[in-house]
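tokens incoming
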């Protein structure tokens, strides 16, 4: 097949995307496909129209690549693409919207409050922080509604620290969440097609419990797959993750991030286009499920629509 491999882009996760793209390109070539790698730029549409690919493999992360922008263009051009379609991308990219949908489906996600920049700047929302604390409790986590790789995520232990944390989160997006901090084991469930892959656990290697960005830098966490869980826990975590994937309308693949706390699994977010580098969680989970990287790429391609 003639594959347009979309990688790079303008999001803060450009670097990860280039690494995902390089690994995917290698796999596609070894599978015998014809591959042309494209970065996002003003000529994207004309290049795609000229190339007439059979399918677009989207190895983009973050804004524009993962939020439905590129998917909408491809769907307009009639080019099948990998991963979730436009609406599912939009729902997953927006953590506040995702959580409302999860709640509507009776799926567990921590309590939260969403603040827009306008609410704080123009409507005096700052005087509601005490109320927010009454809703979500302390500690709480402040995070931008969209973004990835833990960018702008901060734990707040005192109400007077909320403004600073919100300013940080709002520097990444025009909306931010204050969410109940959940103590527990950090798990990720990747879904390929309609199958939940073995659960991955991120185990922090040092005492950086509150510094999530550091945790995901090399050496900040080690990953165990399959996670050492009881069968019933694995079953419950996988069930909830698969239900979240379905609730958001995902297809092809996605990764659901959860925390397994005292009250069972709590869903933090759904990533419509999870990392595809050698060290990323989806490839690790596939491997543990007996699916090689090449087989995984071929399956993702087969699921394109
Ligand atoms: N409510 C929460 N309770 C505890 N830890 C959290 C919570 N929300 C986020 N975190 C931590 O921050 C990391 C990133 O948060 P997440 O919501 O997955 O956003 P993203 O990965 O898109 O940056 C999580 O993997 C987890 O370590
Ligand atoms: Mg995450």
């Amino acid at each position: 097949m003639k594959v347009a491999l979309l990688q790079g882009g303008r999001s803060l996760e450009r670097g990860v995307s280039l690494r995902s793209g390089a690994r995917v390109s290698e796999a596609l070539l070894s599978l015998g496909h014809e591959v042309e790698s494209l970065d996002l730029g003003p000529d994207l549409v004309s290049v795609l129209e000229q190339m007439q690919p059979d399918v677009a493999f989207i190895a983009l992360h973050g804004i524009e690549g993962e939020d439905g922008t590129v998917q909408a263009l491809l769907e307009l051009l009639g080019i099948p693409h990998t991963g979730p379609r436009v609406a599912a991308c939009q729902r997953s990219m927006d953590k506040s919207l995702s959580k409302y949908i999860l709640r509507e489906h009776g799926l567990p996600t921590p309590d939260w409050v969403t603040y827009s920049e306008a609410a704080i700047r123009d409507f005096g929302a700052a005087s509601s922080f005490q109320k927010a604390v009454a809703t979500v409790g302390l500690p709480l986590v402040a995070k931008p509604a969209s973004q990835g790789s833990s960018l702008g995520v901060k734990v707040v232990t005192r109400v007077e620290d909320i403004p600073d944390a919100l300013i940080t989160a709002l520097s990444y997006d025009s909306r931010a969440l204050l969410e109940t901090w959940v103590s527990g084991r950090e798990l990720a469930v990747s879904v390929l097609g309609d199958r939940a892959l073995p659960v991955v656990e991120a185990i922090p290697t040092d005492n950086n419990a509150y510094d999530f960005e550091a945790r995901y830098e090399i050496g900040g966490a080690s990953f165990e797959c399959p996670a050492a869980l009881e069968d019933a826990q694995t079953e419950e975590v996988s069930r909830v993750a698969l239900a979240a994937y379905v609730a958001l309308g995902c297809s092809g693949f996605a990764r659901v991030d959860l925390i397994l706390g005292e009250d069972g699994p709590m869903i933090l977010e759904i990533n419509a286009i999870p990392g595809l580098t050698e060290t990323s969680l989806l490839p690790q989970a596939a491997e543990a499920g007996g699916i090689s990287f090449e087989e995984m790429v071929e399956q993702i391609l087969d699921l394109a629509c």
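note: The longest strand covers residues 253-261.
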